[in-house]
Amino acid sequence: MKYELVMGLEVHVELATQSKLFCSCSAKFGGGQNEHVCPACAGMPGMLPVANRRAIELGIAAGLVTNSEIAREITFDKKSYFYPDLSCGYQITQLFAPICKNGRVDVETSKGTSGIRLKQIHIEEDAGKLVHDFRTGTSLVDYNRCGVPLVEIVSMPDFRSAEEVVAYLEKLRSLLVYAGVSDCRMEEGSMRADINLSVRPIGSEKLGVRTEMKNMNSLKAIARAIEFEAQRHIDALETGSEILVQETRRWDDERGESFSMRNKEDATDYRYFPNPDIMPIVIDGAWIDGVRASLPEMPHEKLLRYTGELGLSKTDAAILVRSRSLADIFDKTAAICGRPREVANWMITELMGYLKNENIPEDEITVDYEKFAKLIGLVENRTVNRGVGKSIFIEILRNNADPEEYISAHGLGMISDTAGLEKLVRETLAENVKSVLEYQNGNAKVLSFLMGQVMKKTKGKADPQALGELLRKNLTVL
Amino acid sequence: MKCYLDATIMRKGLECTAGSRILEGFAAPFSASVVDKLGSAGVEIAGVAAADEFGIRPAADAPEPGALAAVADGLCDFALCNDHSGRVRGLAASRGLYYLHPTYGTVSRCGLVPAVSSMDQIGVLAKDAVTVFRALWIIAGHDPRDGASLPNMTHPEPENLTVGVYGSDFSLRCANILEPVHAILSAAEISGNIARFDGVKFGFRAEGYRNINELYLRTRSEAFGLDTKLTLVVGSMVLSAEYYDSRYRKAMQLRRLIRDELLEILVKFSAIRLPASITALATLSGAPSLTLPDGSQLIAKPCAEKALERLAKGGSAL
């Protein structure tokens, strides 16, 4: 029997605000234990919630970049349950009137493009963190994170493969980082994905028993978790080795298995009701338009401009657009030097390799645009050759070197003096008689070897064009 | 002037129990907005009056809230209470006192231990109308820290004052649903507001627990009184998935009808006069009500405190 995988995602994303959702404590990541805490988020009585305007705006932004409908009026609700990391005994969230509905994110995989439908996006507050001391058997609570604003992005069960899930998360991340909604760092917990998974025989319309998976802290862990859980479901259905129950399971990446969280949480009635302390918030067209106007050019818009107006290839454009940092470097540098194709070339051939070798994440790279643009100009006007230019580029990236200063300090100017070069060419040919003979016998490839030898003598600074001409001239003369 | 605060109003650094064992030893981290206003007006806070636990009306016989004796016996000029249950208003007449329950949103709730968020208001208990309103105008005012605080405190000076009398000038279609609606909504909101009292962070924590669930159960069982526990049971039930629509949601809809009926009646009169015991009408509607020593109360439109003031001081209009 062949099975189909059916999945839905609930993605929690921490909003990039200065302060928490309902109090003015800092929402910054980290901080000493219980440093960013006040009577409101610590669960003390007497302080009333005051909504963070920026958080609402980022919620609107998240809706705009996911093609969602933005609600005209939103309310906040209390979701009640007891757990020590929840200081008030309830979480303020949105059940009855979420900020966005019916969005859509297009995702590209090896099988083509699929449109993932979003059920809704809602704003809610995060809970604190528990720290367990197994030696003493005590648990400690840190409320720094309690009250930090989140959006929860809920998809329909449209996913059919792990590849689709990973592509969606990468796309979602790209959209939200571009829009300034969040920095979406899975390793810091500012982006978390829970996956609802079930399997069914291909062709069946009925959904199978679904399990919810939590605690996947990277895209690779997600892919592994999906593979494991799908197989567990299939095994259960085929062999009856276990009975599938609707439950929440915790993924243990080290052991490569999922474990049932088997607590009464699954049966919890959260007793949602509207929070009487928070008045309904009206979101009018003017506010939405304002947020829309403040959004930067989004990845797909850049793609169109790069491949259309600027004539870049689709593959090149796709690489540049992958992270906002890369796109910014491209846009700003091209604006200064006026040579977009050159900038793209340099970035793709040199910068991407540098990032890989130095293990720098794509969204953390910065370059001095002026210096980068200057370097490109210096290569174009033949002050230095391309080979030397590449090493200068590394100096700019690593040490923020100024290209002109670096060239004069190290005497890297391109050598085009024909007389001097010809002397070196004749020297080289005399030293490599065997190669000359091979060339005369028709082996043209030997030319690049000979070029390399002369280049070495000039410490890499020769003008390759002039060098090539001189070599050919002298080889034919022989 | 001297005043007493009931046990639910916070003063920085001082113990604030809200009448409950669960807040024993809880030192308020800041002072209520009203306390700041009293200070600015030079009012001395002479003491704290015992209150019903979270202001919940006791099911059986129980000592009356301390504010009544404090005012009646002259220990202070006025007392501030949160009378969401209506018990203080009900008892005020028997002590020959006035009580003003202001329009919802008139007085800031910042620094008040919350009970019924949509009904909580800090009101004034005093021996005479002059003192009541003097105190009101000191504590009233917009506070951006309270989302329900009325933004524009326009209190219109009333013109021709007319008073409608219950029974002769108007009747109440909603009379027999006032108490059930009030009970359902109060219990629901209180159960949400006191969930934070769990023994984990501050206040009372029971001993002998072996895990977090026992910590919760023992703490809340030992420290909450019977009336609070009954409120929790009812509150949890009316918010539960099974009963939400038929109880809580229904009560919310009926509350709207109750308020609409009151406002409709108040189109014809500056104020209405009815027995002081019918407290839920004003509480649910967020309308101001003044309890009089003769056992009656006056209710006016939201923000029409000045009409109540004129009527109370006038005396002959009643």
Order of helices and strands of chain B: EHEHEHEEHEHHHHEHEEH
Strand fraction of chain B equals 5-15%
Order of adjacent strands in the largest pleated sheet of chain B: 2-1-3-5-4-8-9-7-6
**Mean of residue pLDDT values of chain B:** 95
Low-confidence residue ranges of chain B: none
- Count every beta strand of chain A, where a strand is a DSSP E run of 2 or more residues: 16
Strand order of the largest sheet of chain A: 2-6-7-10-1-11-12-13-14
| Alpha plus pi helix count of chain B | 10
* Average pLDDT for all residues of chain A: 92
Largest interface: A-B, 30 and 42 residues
Most strands sheet of chain A: 9 strands, mixed
How are the secondary structure elements laid out?
The complex is a heterodimer of chains A (478) and B (318).
Chain A: E1 3-14, H1 53-65, E2 69-70, E3 73-74, E4 77-80, E5 90-93, E6 100-109, E7 112-125, E8 129-133, E9 138-142, E10 149-155, H2 162-178, E11 191-201, E12 211-216, H3 219-239, E13 247-252, E14 257-260, E15 273-274, E16 281-282, H4 285-294, H5 299-307, H6 314-321, H7 324-337, H8 340-358, H9 369-380, H10 386-399, H11 403-410, H12 418-431, H13 433-440, H14 446-457, H15 464-477
Parallel strand pairs in A: 12-13
Antiparallel strand pairs in A: 1-10, 1-11, 2-6, 3-16, 4-5, 4-15, 6-7, 7-10, 8-9, 11-12, 13-14
Helix pairs in contact in A: 1-4, 2-3, 5-6, 6-8, 7-8, 7-9, 9-10, 12-14, 12-15, 14-15
Chain B: E1 2-6, H1 33-40, E2 44-49, H2 66-72, E3 78-82, H3 87-92, E4 98-101, E5 122-126, H4 129-139, E6 163-165, H5 178-193, H6 212-223, H7 226-239, H8 244-268, E7 271-275, H9 280-285, E8 289-291, E9 296-300, H10 305-314
Parallel strand pairs in B: 1-2, 1-3, 6-7
Antiparallel strand pairs in B: 3-5, 4-5, 4-8, 7-9, 8-9
Helix pairs in contact in B: 5-7, 5-8
